[in-house]
Known about the structure:
The chain is α/β, with parallel strands linked by helices. It is built from 9 helices and 8 strands. It has helices spanning 9-21, 38-45, 65-78, 112-129, 145-153, 162-171, 191-201, 215-224, 245-255, and strands at residues 26-29, 53-59, 83-88, 137-141, 157-161, 179-187, 210-213, 232-236. β3 (83-88), α4 and β4 form a beta-alpha-beta unit. The longest helix has 18 residues, at 112-129.
Amino acid sequence: MDRGGLNNPQNIKIMSEELDKYNYYSMLLTYHSKNSDLLIKSLLAANNDINLKFMLAIRTYAISPEYLSMICNSYNQSFPNKLILNVTSGDIHLEENSVNDIPMFSEYLDTPEKRLNYTEEWTKKFIEICSNRYLPELFMAGHSDKTREMADKFNATHISMLDMHIKYLKDNNIINKKQLISLSILIRDNFDKAKEFLLKNNTAGAENWTLVGNIEKIKKEILDLQNLGITDILISQCPNDDQIHLVHELIKELSE
């Protein structure tokens, strides 16, 4: 998962080829209305000689189902089965004007609840339009019950942060058929130094979604995630971690 650091096609290409060597399945490129579009940049970086796919975050209010279906179809013609969509209703950052920038219909999308309802209808229409075209694999991010229900309804994989998923399991009984958990991994032999590094270099609360320890400890914790109904994991790098290669090597070992 890239949090906005890859800002040109060449960087995306280099990173995708590196991750492919470690058997990662896909690479998530996030969405922010103040940044440039990463769907186009991923197309410029795509490579049919590797297995890695690109997962593109798409906010449903930002593009019509028809036009996105056209884009996906064109993408697939050049790079078959290389595109995945992370469909979101849109958690809008404070610095964004996304809803206000929608002419005429902003009042219908100005709350999270309204955007969730729109996303349900949008996804239904998108799948319908794609029935005679290429339908990418779908992921849906969000912690509401409605998002979880939509994920199962549309045969999508639900995305949740690790700590939020654990809290959800305590409070609810709904378990998605396909569940991806977002987390970070910090591998060090010295646990206390690793925790100190985590608290010093990461945002508040990072310890709640970060697996910390030596390789054997982390390996066991990843395998134990299956007991929580988790089918996929999404990894983001801990800031300033100069030993991220240890994570890559672990992922390759597990995938093999």
